[in-house]
Amino acid sequence: MKLYYVLSTFIFEIYCGGPIVATVNLHMLYNDSKVFVDKPLKYSPEVTLMAYKNLFGHLQPKDINPLDLIDFINDHFLPVGTDITVCVPDDWKPFPKKLMSIKDPILRKWALSINAIWKKLCKQVHPKVFEHPERYSIIPLKYKFIAPGGRFREIFYWDSYWIIKGLLASEMYETSAQMILNLASFIEQFMNFRVVKNPNIS
Asked: In Å, what is the CA distance from 161 to each residue of 44, 147, 151?
């Protein structure tokens, strides 16, 4: 897993501080700035950067035709979401004993509705991310996880605290352990920093 961040400089050039992301943001190609950084690469960062320079290197970013830029993005990037697969938690059950023991019928119904959400929010990093980690902004994680939902498909450190509390109430101890192991893997992957990142994106 440590190999991922031998490649961090190239990934940074694509998704964080390089010319492509700067030009995309300048032209406001997307209503949500998260869209571009969630797009996996079709080719290596080096090949993608070279293609960009060959097409647009003679132009100032403001002079690049947005339609040409969109064509470039479509030719060199995959759609958002192709780095993540949906899943069902291994230990999910529709009627956990702990929740069924709630006496108030309204609160019990509410608790069961929360329990049902875990199936909808379960995600797993696609196997191809492990094969070509340099093509993805997402950090590869070994285990399934529960994402916050909405536009956030990644595991998030702060959200995970509250998610795990809910999982424990749903008696999903294996899923809770997998969440913790995923977060702990950040420390291994970022040995120089000894930190747990907030999201598992670069």
From this structure: 35, 12, 19
DSSP assignment of the chain? -GGGGGSHHHHHHHHTSSHHHHHHHHTT-SSSTHHHHTPPBSS-HHHHHHHHHHHHTTS-GGGS-HHHHHHHHHHHBPPTTTTEEE---TT--SS-HHHHT--SHHHHHHHHHHHHHHHHHEEEE-HHHHH-GGG-SBPP-SS-EE--BTTB-S-BHHHHHHHHHHHHHTT-HHHHHHHHHHHHHHHHHTTTT----SBSB-
Per-domain residue ranges for the chain? 2-76, 84-189
Q: Considering the entire predicted model, what is its pTM?
A: 0.85
Question: pLDDT digits over 56-96, tens only?
Answer: 999 999 999 999 999 999 999 999 999 999 999 999 999 99
The stretch 129-156 carries a mean pLDDT of 92
Q: What DSSP string describes 124-167?
A: EE-HHHHH-GGG-SBPP-SS-EE--BTTB-S-BHHHHHHHHHHH
User: In this predicted model, what pLDDT tens digit does every residue of 21-63 receive, in sequence order?
Assistant: 999 999 999 999 899 999 999 999 999 999 999 999 999 999 9
